[in-house]
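Bug #77: duplicate submission created two jobs. Keeping one. Sequence:
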Amino acid sequence: MSPAADRERPEIPKALPLLPLRDAVVFPYSVVPLIAIGESQVRLVEDAMRGSRMLGLFLQNGDAEKPSPADLRTTGTAAVVHRMTRRPDGALQMIVQGIARIRISRITQMEPYLSGLVEPAPEQGAEGIEFDALANTARDLFQRLVAASPQMPNALGDALSAISSPLQLAYLIASALPISTEERQEILELDSVAEKLRRLVSAIQRQLAVAELEHRIAAETEQHLGKQQREHLLRERLRTIQRELGEDEDPDRVAVEDLRKKIESLPLPEEARREAERELGRLARMPPVSAEYGMIRAWLDWLTSLPWGKTTAVPIDLKKARQILDEDHHDLEKIKQRIVESLAVKKLREERQQAAEDDSAREPILCLVGPPGVGKTSLGQSIARATGRQFVRISLGGVHDEAEIRGHRRTYIGAMPGRIVQALRRAGSSDPVFMLDEIDKLGASYHGDPAAAMLEVLDPAQNRTFTDTYLGVPFDLSRVLFLCTANTFDTIAAPLLDRMEVVPLSGYTEDEKIRIARSHLLPKQLRAHGLREGEVQIPDELLRRVIREYTREAGVRGLERAIAALMRKAALRIGEGASAPVMLSDADLKEALGRPRFHAELTERVDRPGVATGLAWTPAGGDVLFVEATLVAATGGGGTLQLTGMLGEVMRESAQAALTFLRSNGARLGLTDGALDGKTVHVHVPAGATPKDGPSAGVTILTALASAARQRPVRSDLAMTGEITLRGKVLPVGGIKEKVLAAYRAGVKDVLLPRLNEPDLEDVPEEVRRTMRFTPVDSADEVLREAFPEQAAPELEPEACETGEERPSLQ
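Kept job's structure:
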């Protein structure tokens, strides 16, 4: 630089306010616009304008709002503010001109903005033929670049011709050249003017090579490109330009880079990582207009959104778990105890770091089987609360496509992962409490068997490498706590049932339902209807009427709906100005729920010969079953057996066995001669639209036939269950607890059951056992003796009993 130019420079103060710049470098002799944002920067500029109007401009490392001295580069530019305007948002827009290169000597002020002592950092000039040739080369190359680049104004080339100073030439080229911020700072920090020019010559040659290559490619292919190829080339050229400018903001490229960062940050298994990187490479090379582009993009989005290695479980506190289960569920002591035991095993395995690969020691998957409304789903939510895990639930009722579980092949349009993977993404963790609801209602079709697909999900030996068809890579399900629910296990596939431990849940007694209503249902419905505690009062007798006359069920869903109807009536009365508390009465019950749906019809139904009361098990709990029998004189000679009421094959065989037993032992059982001979025997079970099957109605059919043959009614307070054999033996049956609870709800006082089922009474609630009488029986003779107690039975002949013991028979 000439001495005259040095004399034109303003004198630089020793102390300057220091303005940090993000992604910008201001060179000496250049005039650039800048914006001061934030209270600290605005105050810095205002103070400078009241003084020398001079600032120190230094590149900032990082994006800190208030950078520290360590965040600033030590070499910068002293600049003068020529013009300043204030924007509506409070920021200051200014035009500054670089004066000279400076360095920071010492920071003297941190607040409210950075200020420090600076010293000039003059560049080292050079003379000679080589130096002049270097300057001329830089000038000529830059003028060629301006001519080859439409985005650069031609005035830049003209401005170079008027500059004689090599330093000014270098800084002008550096200001206009499309290079990165870091390269600009490196050029500013070079002390030698010759080194600056050499770096610029190299950068200009690189830009010229890119521009000339683009021109050559465009010239050679312009006549042969179709529309799609032309768009692809233009996108590639745009990416090249943006990459050189450091402004690569192409949405497709940004999306690819985001996916790359996600894949690098996720703890993917090696196989999944290889597949993800391979597909990502294909995506980066593929034009976005390709049909396969969207498919690969969707696959990568699913893969990176799964909770690989992310867990939320907290250390298990058994006391807290028991407390949560007791708060959320009344009674169910055996079920809650089984859940706490399972959590205790899991706690010990985690604390002692038992090898995860030890599949033989894994805790079994629990399957909660019971009628609707007894709390199966809410038990899963309580387990999630107790373990700190997320809770997800999928309903399998009506699922008949294997792809719903495993997912579809991603080559199909609209393909998606299966429900298992979708639920895991929704949970956001790889160890949720996963409830598979209604697993007994899976159905097979020509699309495959979803129950077979569930085998891999629920098998501890396989689910560590569960592979969804859509993803095509294994995902570890071994940390998931699976729970299943079902109304009956009869329809669950045997291999699937083998992987689970069945935990039966039975219905509630009347007193249990009242306690559940008081502790859970009423507070919930009060909140749901905007009512406060104590504003509505429902007597226990009113709740008992609701349970007996309106909601005869195993669970409490119907009871909750009835309580909601009562709450609506109470809310209406309070809304109309009634004073609290509102006491609900029988009139409110009839107004809200209508006339009673159930009646105490037991005595009425069994008040004549030929009717007996049986007990049946259904997926919705136990039920009372009335069996009717009548004898009609046969036309044409021989008698037949006629069965109606949609009876299944097993139940038909029980009726045939009972009839054959009575015919072969009629005289010994006290039947009149020929009571069954030549008669058409008609057995009917009411509710004919409901299918019925099973062997447990055998003793009931036997009793109804005996009652019709003897023309004596059976005891009205007696119900029975048990399978009958051809020789009169009573065999055990299932569902004793549900059947006893159904008898209790119907007002039955005495229950006959097989003697081998007597241990099952331990599952019956204590309050039911106290109010009912249970009579275990072994043979048909004992059944008939209890059904007709007013008449003594004769002694049995020794050969008539299976066990060889002599037993009395009915007269």
